Structure formats: C-alpha cells, structure tokens
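Quick log. Single chain, no ligands specified.
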Amino acid sequence: MRYLLLFLIGWLGVNRPAMSQAPEAENGTLDARTWNFAARPLPLNGTWQWYDYELLSPLDTEQSVGQKVAFPKVWNDVRPYGGGDGFATYTLTVLLPPEPQQYALDLPMFYCSYRLFLNGQLLASNGTPGQTRETTVPQWRPQVAAFTAGGHVKLVLQISNFYHFKGGTKDVVYLGEKNMLEKKVMIARSAVIVQFVLMMLLGAVSIWVFFSRQRKRVALWFAALAFTWGIRAVFSNRYVAIHFFPDFDWTWAVRIEYLTIYLMVIVAILYISKLFKEEVNAFLGVGLIVLNLTFVAFTLFTAPLDFTRWLGVYLSVAAIMLLYMGIVVVRALINDRIGSGFLSVSLLLGVLLFAYDIVTYEGLFAYHDLIFSVGYTVLFILVGFGLLVHLRIMKSKARPAGKLTYSDLYRDDD
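-> predicted structure:
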C-alpha cells in the first residue's frame, strides 16, 4: 500500500502541466530557437492571434487584424457570452533554428473540425470546417503531421463547431522531432489496443467462468466492467477507433464516449455492492444508478449539442459517486475485512483513475496516454485476480481461523 501511494503521488506530480520552463507564445509569436527538441517536444502554449467568427485563408490573415487569446482554451471561456458554437481562425509564428530538419506536430482533437496550414500549405485536417451547420462536418481524429522546415513557420488554424457544447480546443499542441513524436503516438495507440484486447479477453473469460464454473453474478458484473471500459478506451482521448475507421459517424462516437462513462458508474456501483454488502448504502446506490440511467436516456435520445451541455451537472453526480465509493472502501478497511485489502487497493486505484479522467477532460491536468492505459490495465488485472481468488480458481495463502475472508463477502451470493 505504501509503495502504491508513493507511486500515485509521483504520478500526479508528473501529470501536472509542468511547462513553466518552456517558452510561451506572445502575441502570436513563439521563439523556439534555443529549445532542445532532441530532449522533449515543445508545447505551443501562450497567446495566439485569434480571428473570431472568421475563417481566413493564410493569405487573408496577412491583411486582417486579430486579437490576442490564450491557447489552448475553449471558446466558452474566452468569449464574453460564453458560447462554444461558430468558427474562428488562429495564427502562430514559430521561430526555429536556421538549419532545416524534420519536425512534426502532435495534433489533438478540436471541437469539432479543423484545417491547419503551414507556410500557406494545407498540413492536416479533421472533418470539414464551415461557416454554417450544414457546411460543417465534425470529426475527432488526433494525428501527427510531419514537415521539414528551418528558420520559422507560420501556422494558420481554422476551427468550426456547430455540434458540441464546447468550441475551440482544450488540449495542447506539441511541436517536436518527427521520429520522437511518431514513436510517442505509436506507443500510445499500441497501449490502447493492448488495453482493449485485454479487456475483451477478461470479459469473455469472466462470462465463461460464470456459465462453466460458478454462477455468481459478480463474474458478470466484472465482465460488464471490462467490456465497457474496453470500448471506452478506443472511443476517448486518442480515439483509436476513429484512427482505424475515420468514416465512423461522429455523433455515435461521441454518444459511445459519454454512454460508457455512465454505464461504467452503474456497473461499478453494482459490483461494489457485491463486494462490500455490509458497508454499502442501498438507498444511495439505487439513487446514483437511477441518475446515471437518466443520463443514459438523455444521451441516447438527444443531439450531442444538447447532451454535452450537461456534462458539468454530471460531474457533480460523479463527485458524489467517488465520495460514496471512497467511504465504502474506508469502512471496509476499518472493519478489518481480511481479504478485502487487495480489492480495496484496486478500488482506490479505480477511483483515482476515474477522477483523473474527469480532471484531464476539464484541462486541469496534462493527459499522458501510456500512464493512463497502464493504470487501468493494472486495475483490471488486480480485480481479475481478486475475482479468481473469490471463485477459488486461484488459491490464496492460508489465513488464521475465525477471520473474515474475501469469500465471506459473497456468502449469500446467488
């Protein structure tokens, strides 16, 4: 437990946006001539030039006057009325070392379509940015765009959004060496794919165990957790599913991302209710399930522009859920449930990872693909081993007589 806590503290420290040493853009210009790109990529943070409600070509930006705006920042936080719909253009000039070399940009998802020009040439795009809903096609497909340059480059970024509550971007754009960024993204995608395959296997094995060994519903709840998280892994953050299926309907991709959050909470509450029967509050658990089912229905039957608007409300529900699960875990430890310590650590890790998922969505922490994937993979492996111990498929060490065991937590399972 001590080493896990030390790891988590260090992990949170690493994941804070530790970018104070990096040069920042000022009024649309970023001086990167002394930056060591061989050491790490450069976040293109700072103040860019912004042309709100204008989709300007690279040539048009030379003849227009923009305004300074913080980047990255969603439009809801920089516009006076807080709206996230519409369109806008950003420009940034980056001063580079004079010798030409291969660079790349690690481009995240933008709300909800974009075109990026470099020195007047189209470099990358997602969907089709337009000035109306009818002419805009949304797409979320993070990518790495490579180029060769020296001296300086000018970036012109067009963003359009008529489909999501938020507009603009909250994620950092990184500039770095081509090979370094491509390797980083390849590792991140591979980790997500491994995570997805592992979750599917864990879920399938749990269903097989339920039907062939012991018909205890806790195995089904674990299978549901694994399947739901596996699907969410490829429909969030790096959006690996969209990388392989770029024509996948954007509306359903967003629905899947949101639905898996709510379904994970529902299944987690049902799962923890089986683990710690004496510590759970049945009334509160049912209430949280009903609330999440309400969000499920709202997400299924409304447009993304509507259901994404209420994520802030859901975060309050998620906070209550995290507090509830934390209290259940603490009570189980206080009650000295020998055999529950293993699962308590797993649940604690799960609560922290879920909380991390929320705060990274809000832009409060930097997102790190590999740590995120490894964290959830380790979590499900730990819970899976605990399930095997409970089902007596894997034997645990001997214990003193008269002590409450992990299996005792399921004494009246059906």
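The longest helix spans residues 178-212.
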